[in-house]
Design brief:
Layout: E1 21-28, E2 31-39, E3 45-49, E4 65-73, E5 84-88, E6 98-104, E7 108-115, E8 118-125, E9 132-139, E10 143-148, E11 151-156, E12 160-161, E13 174-180, E14 192-200, H1 215-218, E15 220-224, E16 232-233, H2 242-252, E17 257-261, E18 265-269, E19 284-288, E20 300-305, E21 319-325, E22 333-337, E23 342-345, E24 350-352, E25 358-368, E26 371-381, E27 392-399, E28 405-413, E29 418-423, E30 433-435, E31 440-442, E32 445-447, E33 451-462, E34 465-475, E35 480-485, E36 491-496, H3 499-503, E37 505-509, E38 512-514, E39 517-518, E40 523-526, E41 536-543, E42 546-555, E43 563-566, E44 576-583, E45 586-594, E46 603-611, E47 615-622, E48 627-636, E49 641-650, E50 657-661, E51 671-677, E52 688-694, E53 700-706, E54 715-720, E55 726-735, E56 740-749, E57 757-760, E58 764-766, E59 770-776, E60 784-788, E61 794-798, E62 804-806, E63 811-815, E64 819-825, E65 830-832, E66 835-840, E67 843-848, E68 853-856, E69 867-870, E70 881-884, E71 889-896, E72 907-920, E73 923-937, E74 941-944, E75 952-962, E76 970-979, E77 992-996, ...
Parallel strand pairs: 1-14, 33-36, 35-42, 58-68, 70-76, 77-84, 79-81
Antiparallel strand pairs: 1-2, 3-13, 4-9, 4-14, 5-6, 5-13, 6-7, 7-8, 8-12, 9-10, 10-11, 15-19, 16-18, 17-18, 17-19, 20-21, 21-24, 22-23, 22-25, 25-26, 27-28, 28-31, 28-32, 29-30, 29-33, 33-34, 36-40, 37-38, 37-41, 39-40, 41-42, 43-44, 44-47, 45-46, 45-48, 48-49, 50-51, 51-54, 52-53, 52-55, ...
Helix pairs in contact: 7-8, 7-9, 7-10, 8-10
Membrane topology: Multi-pass membrane protein
InterPro entries: ConA-like_dom_sf, Ig-like_fold, PKD/Chitinase_dom, PKD/REJ-like, PKD_dom, PKD_dom_sf
GO molecular function: monoatomic cation channel activity
Length: about 1200
């Protein structure tokens, strides 16, 4: 650091006292941009706000800044003066930035800079009386440096961190003189001057030569005669400014004054006498080195007070130590005892005792700003036999964790053997304790019989006498006791104590004070009249605020006998008995009803907290068997019990009748109705049941069902024939002399329509030509047909005998059992959509003819009949084109034709399709496929998108014709069989994966799917995961799934996606891939299709393995594989950083395993080399590892943090 300083041209000194002008100059890039002044108010002055200059906004000081000013303190003030902000641009505020100068403790000046989250500061002590020149040099990259009177004083490079700082937009950018630390304006009297403030926007401005501003001349004190031993001889270059050079040399020697003789010699001293400014020939010129103070007037006083006037202190004797400074300032004192005890406090005194003999030292240190103070004292600890009884007996008693238990602590300070006995105040004493060491302890305990006040005394004896101690102990009952009593009974409890003890007692019931009396010397009683009936009474016995005894007393009434009432019906009882129980006023009653069946559920219990008036309980019981039963009702509380009984006889009622039937398709069929009474339950005797049935068409039956030698109610069957089609509501009823029940159902007479289709022999006819369409309707009864030919002609007909029927001149119909053939003649050209609707009593269904019918009146075609072929496709019903459902299928059509005049019009393509279904042995039906119904398209290629067709055999027919030549057409069909695709297996991740041995192995196979499905894409898939050495992969890739399964060892079977698609999963190994199959099964997880287990399950001799996944569905299967490299836990330190990153995102168990392995690797590393030590510090510091470890657990909300210590 350069020890000289360049400041600039010296300006006149301007005070900041009242009514003075203060000047500030701002220089940017060598150019003076601003010079201003202001008149102070008291000691405060705002010199202006500069948000767009480095002067007021430090964030604009890209190259740093330099700041110079003169400061003069009039005289020293009291150190307890509040801190004063002499000059600031906002840096002293919490949420602000800038520079500042603060005065504390009279002569300590702190210079600081704040920017963002950083804070640079340094402190210097300055002498008062004459002006001192202060200069600041700061840059963010180089830190803060302070110069005093042109000489380097101190610096701070890194700065401190500021936490929680938020600098708002528009923060203070003003340069201000004279504020308190709380931002208030300073008022008089003012005690110092600040002048000539110059700030430049570069830190380098401060470097230069001190002589440029002649600071040394200002520090010249005069001349005096000195005898300087071995003065320094100045060089020729130093003699140009001998005073400055000599000041620098004396500053380095920590001297106060610099002496110069004849401009060629330099000496240093710490004291001078009187100086004068005349008659200096042959004398030394005297200069003040700088205004930096090296001495202070603070004094730290340390005093101590022993327990006796002896010149020594005994072991365990407390000594009181007090300390203070000679100024009223806040100081924190640090007491350092030589036995390792350290006490830090701002409010002495403190006490301390030593246990060991010898000379002991106490050192007290304190700090006032940058001034450090120390004081010490020596204490002599000796063990002297003074021929006395025990010095000290300490007896304390606390209450134990259990009732009536006293925990005693007896301390004896004696240099001889002491024999001690405790008296517990109840006539019992302790065994004798022999205490043989100075400062011995014993901890006897005693348990009393009852609560109360006891006097416990200790008596200790040695060879010279005895000493006693006594304490009072309050024995307490820590339990909360519960007691049940009848009304008019007094509350009573036992207590121990004298009369004064009982006089101080207080008794309360439910927090209300009540009176009490003594039945004898130890029995306390409370009148029964003070307790509350039918309520809980919390009774507390308290002595001077201490709870001695707590009881909860429950007053309960004696119960009356309950009354039973049963619901009877006409000389017989239902299987369900309705019972009513009546009970008079009571409280906290348990009511039990026993229905006498000795079966589960036959005993019911009710709790009633309070009964006012009459209690009524209504209940029901279902009896599963006929017979005689005794019902018993018991009412009880804590003080009494009573019961009542009733005999009953149970007969069976009719509680249920049901009717079931099946729909019939024709009125000629017989309808059968199955009737079932009481669900066919077992009974014990013959009964008669009247059964009625109404068939819904006006007919009804009535008959009697009688039990004979059967002991169950079986089913009845009633038959009925309906006259017409329709849906009928059938009602049935069953009754006996005590009960009845009804049921109903619906029956359909006739068949629903389930399918209709319409086809044509040709989709192109001439005007007046015959169009023949066929309507197929294989199901449905009494069907009506409605044909709309699209030209306004609507044809309606019903089911007819097989014959030809001429309906009108345009339509002829032939109808069979399941189909109808209709002929129609169009009178106009055009394109017509034909639609059929079939209906009956139960619904209707429609179908459109595909494609639309083209009717042409142009019999003179200009083009020949085209020839069409399916490009590269030749099919038949027996040899269809086979395509997978998940792929796109293209069917291109090639057309060849000629036209007159060599005209080549566009070709139109019309498509229709049918699905071919096998409905029985040797029976095949074609049903229209409306998905591919299109007319006159210009694209010659039919595109079948993936998943557009279901599985099965289809016939797709194309009709082509030149445009404008509809009757010159050709048609051909292609057969296509849509079959299943192979499933798609997937193992997430790169083809080669690395797994750390102490981590979790994860194989995500959830991406596997069935490409033929749009939803539930994993339905019916089964998964087979094989592990093998990588060397076996090539040969095993050539094997089928069955061959692999045959040679592999099955390790585990699981179910994936259990709540959705429930896929079977099997895990195999080929060779020895795992250490223990049982441990692997315990560790194996398949959650969400991710196969996970601890990597340490892999066999220790396996370093590179192949994982092969086969996915199978309906005999189709596909395979993929992945290579895994297994790395052991002795990974290099270079890998540990990635392990820690992985742990942050892993599941909790994986994170724990990763971090455990990482810690093991760190601890087992060879750190002998400097490079290894550097990596270890960067990657695996214990605090970082623990932080990541806890972060991983917190990230997943894992409560395993309780295991971390």
């Amino acid at each position: 650091m350069n020890n000289y300083l360049w400041i600039g041209t010296l300006l006149c000194i301007v005070s900041i006292v009242s009514n003075q002008n203060v000047t500030v100059t701002y220089v940017e890039n060598g150019v003076s941009l601003y010079r201003g002044s202001g008149l102070s108010s008291g000691c405060y002055l705002n010199l202006g706000c500069f948000p767009y200059w480095c002067l007021g906004n430090i964030s604009l000081c890209q190259a740093g800044f330099s700041l110079t000013f003169w400061i003069k303190a009039y005289s020293d003030v009291s150190p307890d003066l509040d801190p004063q902000v002499l000059l600031t641009s906002g840096g002293h505020r919490t949420n602000n930035e800038g520079f500042y100068i603060v005065r504390r403790y009279s002569d300590q000046y702190t210079v600081g800079v704040t920017l963002g989250d950083k804070h640079w500061k340094t402190t210097v002590r300055l002498a008062s009386g004459t002006p001192a020149l202060l200069a600041i040099s700061w840059a963010r990259s180089e830190g803060l440096a302070l110069y005093v009177d042109g000489l380097y004083q101190s610096e701070t490079k890194e700065g401190e961190n500021r936490t929680g700082v938020i600098v708002p937009d528009g923060s203070s950018a003003c340069v201000v003189l004279g504020q308190s630390e709380y931002y208030d304006q300073l008022t008089g009297p003012c005690t110092l001057e600040v002048s000539d403030i110059i700030l430049t926007n570069s830190k380098d401005t401060v470097y230069g030569f001190e002589s440029d501003i002649n600071v040394t001349q200002r520090l010249y004190l005069g001349c005096a005669a000195f005898n300087v031993n071995s003065p320094a001889i100045l060089t020729d270059s130093d003699r140009a400014d001998p005073g400055s050079f000599c000041r620098l040399r004396c500053s380095q020697l920590s001297q106060v004054y610099a002496l110069v003789s004849n401009g060629s010699k330099c000496g240093c001293t710490n004291s001078v006498g009187a100086t004068n400014t005349t008659q200096c020939d042959g004398k030394w010129s005297v200069y003040l080195v700088s205004h930096v103070k090296v001495s202070h007037n603070y004094q730290l006083t340390l005093e101590w007070t022993p327990q006796s006037k002896r010149n020594y202190t005994k072991p365990f004797e407390d000594i009181v130590f007090n300390t203070s400074v000679n100024y009223n300032v806040k100081v924190v004192y640090k007491f350092t005892f030589d036995d390792g005890i350290i006490i830090t406090t701002s409010t002495p005194p403190v006490s301390h005792s030593w246990m060991t003999l010898g000379q002991h030292t106490l050192t007290v240190s304190a700090q006032i700003g940058v001034v450090k103070l120390n004081a010490s004292v020596v204490v002599n600890v000796q063990d002297v036999d003074e021929g006395q009884p025990p010095d000290l007996i300490g007896l304390t008693v606390t209450h134990g964790q259990s009732s009536f238990n006293a925990q005693c602590n007896l301390t004896v300070i004696d240099y001889l053997i002491s024999n001690c006995v405790l008296s517990y105040g109840n006539g019992k004493t302790s065994p004798t304790f022999y205490l043989q060491e100075n400062g011995s302890f014993t901890f006897p305990s005693h348990t009393y019989d009852m609560a109360g006040l006891y006097s416990i005394s200790a008596n200790c004896i040695n060879a010279y006498g005895h000493k006693s101690a006594m304490v009072s102990f309050v024995s307490r009952d820590l339990r909360t006791l519960h007691e049940y009593v009848t009304p008019l009974r007094n509350y009573s409890t036992l207590l121990f104590g004298d009369q004064s003890f009982f006089n101080r007692l207080e008794v309360s019931i439910n927090n209300e004070k009540v009176s009490f009396f003594l039945a004898d010397a130890k029995t306390l009683q409370v009148n029964a009249g003070d307790m509350h009936d039918a309520s809980d009474n919390l009774i507390d016995v308290v002595s001077e605020g201490v709870l001695l005894h707590r009881h909860i007393v429950y007053v309960r009434s004696v119960l009356d006998k309950p009354v039973l009432i049963a619901d009877k019906t006409a000389g017989a009882w239902n299987l369900t008995v309705k019972l009513t129980v009546l009970l008079n006023s009571a409280d906290h009653v348990w009511l039990t009803i026993d229905y006498g069946t000795k079966l589960a559920g036959s005993v019911k219990t009710f709790y009633v907290p309070e009964i006012t008036g009459m209690l009524r309980v209504d209940d029901t019981m279902f009896y599963g068997n006929l017979g005689e039963y005794v019902i018993t009702v018991t009412a009880s509380n804590e003080v009494s019990s009573s019961r009542s009984q009733m005999d009953i006889s149970v007969q069976i009622p009719v509680f249920d009748i049901s009717v079931r039937t099946r729909n019939i398709t024709s009125p000629q069929q017989n309808a059968a109705f199955e009737l079932r009474v009481n669900s066919g339950q077992v009974i014990a005797e013959d009964i008669f049941i009247n059964i009625g049935i109404k068939y819904g068409d006006g007919a009804a039956d009535q008959f009697i069902f009688k039990m004979s030698d059967r002991n169950y109610l079986g089913s009845l069957v009633a038959n009925h024939t309906y006259a017409t089609w329709g849906i009928y509501r059938v009602k049935v009823s069953a009754m006996n002399n005590i009960s009845q029940d009804e049921d109903q159902t619906l029956i359909q007479v006739g068949e629903n329509i389930t399918f209709v289709d319409i086809t044509a022999t040709s989709d192109r006819v001439t005007v007046g030509g015959n169009l023949e369409v066929s309507v197929v309707c294989p199901t449905g009864s009494n069907v009506q047909y409605r044909l709309d030919f699209g030209d306004g002609s609507v044809f309606t007909f019903g089911e007819l005998n097989t014959s030809y029927q001429v309906v009108n001149s345009s339509n002829v119909v032939t109808i069979s059992e399941t189909s109808a053939v209709v002929s129609h003649v169009y009178s106009r050209a055009g394109s017509y959509k034909v639609k059929v609707t079939v209906s009956n009593e139960f619904g209707f269904m429609s179908a459109d003819l595909c494609p639309a019918i083209v009717v042409s009146d142009n019999t003179m075609q200009t083009c020949s009949t085209p020839t069409m072929t399916f490009r590269n496709i030749q099919t038949s019903a027996d040899k269809p084109l086979v395509r997978k459902r998940s792929v796109t299928t293209l069917i291109p059509v090639d057309v060849v034709f000629t036209c007159s005049g060599n005209i080549k019009p566009n070709v139109t393509f019309s498509w229709k399709g049918v699905v071919i279904e096998n409905i029985g042995v040797g029976k095949v039906v074609e049903r229209s496929l409306y998905t591919f119904c299109s007319s006159k398209l210009l694209d010659n290629t039919l595109k079948i998108d993936p998943l557009a067709l279901q599985f099965g055999l289809y016939k797709l027919t194309a009709t082509v014709s030149p445009m404008g030549n509809d009757l010159s057409y050709a048609s051909d069909s292609v057969y296509i069989n849509i079959v299943q695709s192979e499933p798609v297996p997937s193992i997430a991740g790169d083809p080669v994966q690395t797994i750390m041995l102490y981590a979790t192995a994860i194989f995500d196979i959830s991406g596997s799917y069935d490409p033929d499905l749009e939803t539930d894409t994993r339905r019916d898939l089964s998964f087979h995961l094989f592990f093998m050495s990588e060397s076996l992969l090539k040969v095993n890739q050539k094997l089928s799934l069955n061959s692999l399964v045959a040679q592999a060892e099955l390790l585990a079977n699981r179910t994936l996606f259990r709540s959705t698609t429930a896929n079977r999963f099997s895990l195999y190994q080929i060779g020895s891939c795992f250490n223990s199959t049982s441990r692997l099964n315990d560790d194996l997880s398949t959650f969400l299709g991710k196969i996970t287990f601890a990597a340490n399950n892999f066999a220790s001799n396996q370093f590179s393995m192949a994982v092969m996944l086969w996915v199978e569905r309906n005999g189709l299967s596909a395979m993929t594989y992945q290579i895994i490299e297994i790395r052991s836990s002795n990974a290099s330190l270079d890998d540990l950083g990635s392990l820690l990153d992985l742990a942050k995102t892993a599941d909790p168990d994986t994170a724990i395993r990763l971090l455990g392995g990482a810690a093991s690797a760190i601890l087992n590393q060879d750190t002998s080399s400097a490079e290894a030590q550097q990596k270890l510090a960067e990657v695996s510091g214990p605090s970082q590892l623990f932080h990541v470890y806890i972060s991983s657990l917190t990230l997943f909300g894992n409560d395993k943090t309780s295991d971390v210590t």
